[in-house]
Amino acid sequence: MIEHYLTYIDHYLQAKPYMGILFAFLIAFTESLPLVGTVIPGSITMSIIGILAGRGIISLEATLLWATLGALAGDTVGFFVGKYYNERLRLMWPFKKYPKWLTLGEAFFRKHGGKSILIGRFVGPVRSSVPLIAGLLKMSWLRFFVAAIPSAILWAVAYLLPGVLIGAVSLELPRHVTTEFILIGLGVIVLLWLLFWAAQRFFTLVILTINDWIDQLWRWLYLHHSSHFFLRAITNHRNPADHYQLTLTLLAFLSLLCFLGLSILALTVGPLTNFNEPLFYFLQSTRLAHIDKFFALITMLGDAKVILGISLLLIIALGIKKHWRAAFHLVLVTVLSAAAVYLFKWLVFSPRPRGFLVLDHSSSFPSGHAGLSLAIFGFIGFLIAQQLPKKWRWIPYTTASILIVLISYSRLYLGAHWLQDVLGSLFLGFAILLSVIVSYRRYPSKPFRNLKWLVFLVVALVLPWAVMSKTKLHTVLHRYAPIWPVREINYKDWWQHPTRYVPIYRWNRFGHPVQPFNIQWTAPLNDIQQTLEHSGWESIHTKTDIQTALGRFASYKPERHFPLFPWLYRDKPPVLFMIKHLPHATTIIELRLWESGIRFEDNAWPLWVGSINYHIAPKRLITLRRPHEISLVNGGGVNELARALTNYQWKKIFLHGSKKPKKIRPLEWNGEILIIRSTGAL
Fold this sequence. Notes:
The structure is a single chain. 57% of the residues lie in helices and 9% in strands. It has 682 residues and is of the alpha+beta class. Strands 4, 5, 6, 7, 9, 10, 11 and 12 form an eight-stranded mixed β-sheet that branches. Strands 1-8 form a two-stranded parallel ribbon. It has three domains: 2-203, no CATH class; 241-280 and 289-479, no CATH class; 487-678, no CATH class.
């Protein structure tokens, strides 16, 4: 159906090519006008235009150009109206009747300054009114265009790109599934737009509700004399009406409760424990040497020696400059966080993840790196923010947050901690950080007189980290290097009892058994490959790229539907991947062999473990349900493989009685395992 309309549109636009470009300009222009643009779903309309561009019906370059010009023109109109009418806007309809529309935009603009034009275009409630507010608040034309031009370009690219991709992919699809694919693509865009819209309003409502509750609680505490001691302990004496102190206190208390809850889970087998191992196995399966080095450097920034060294240097500097209150609270947050981390490591013992060259016997819970970095770097970021104008305070907060997130993730990536260890330490560090900030804000200090302290801050951050990186990088890399032990066994013992030494199932990237090892083969790999090629098998060299991924939507052939990421065993991909086409069938046989991690004491030939299965052709190219792509019915191709083994000695064994894991049952595996060795073997 849609293919028919697209053909009609194609013929029409070929006759009048300017109409498509004009439509893109008008949509972008209208979507950017004040008030009007708020009710126009730009993401949907621009995606439709993107589909036309992606299918080559209209020029992509011209569409991007004129969509950008349309967006810029709409912004310019809004800015001109705000600048020309100025304060008279407040007396004009509809702003006189709905003054909140201007109030929201002004609050957003005052908070973000000139960059609000850049980011405001992607924020629903103020999306099209920011240029109007900028003109109202007398921003210069030069500053406006400096922000508006890149904003319009980014908007055009971001809103056209999903449609362009959908249109480009649809060209590769069979005609009878094009309509379905485009409808699903548009449906996903609409769904994402609705979710984003709902999330914005939900969180706005939640924040307003919480603020209202805090105000009511503050008034209630103020009216009850028994709570006056508590209020005096948290009140900002420079601004007694500052209810933010109560918000911070409640957040600190809530964070502490979350930490105590995770402490109990660390001592028992709680719900979060079920996520520890899957996340650990998944992250270990993604490790690469150059990324290991990066996160080793990051994790050293969170080392106790480095963080305490940074804190000590800054305390000395603050003391020399006689900023006693800032120095005292930096000492306080350092001592409290370090003491709390080591106290709970002693109280709550949790073994660390295993599988590395060096085994750490200390408690895994909580993570000292994550807890110390959040508390200390968070407080340093807070101190820096107090010295800056409000519009620049996001810089130290964002920088500190990025460092904390990277350090926390490095502990998970390197396998130093479980998920609950990092989450627990973050809650603990957050509780300590907020408590110290509440104490500091009772008598806020005046900003420092100059910014020379920033130079010393950089030195204090870099010096301990650089020293640690120079001296300990190789030690850290060695410590967190994954180890897969190699086992030596007797050749005859293996032949007589093959399942005693090789695991029955292969685990996926999340640590769950998903496939049986129904092949064990000892022979040189080249001999195996040549033997199979002589019998009609093909070697497959898979790669993951955009073309491969998009090819899944264009063909029913099973060989176009291999996994996007290779199946792993011992965190390594198969050393050999071959397929065989069955005559008069849409199903193929897949054979994968991996290094087993086993070598023989009395035979130099390697032992490979593998899986053989049928790969079923998909019945639908586009579906929301994931069908079972592989099958082991009737051995999964074992009999076809056995016909090619004329130069090998082989036997079949059957596993009976063992309960199969949940993900294995749909494969219909009968327990058959094929054991293969060369005829010249011992």
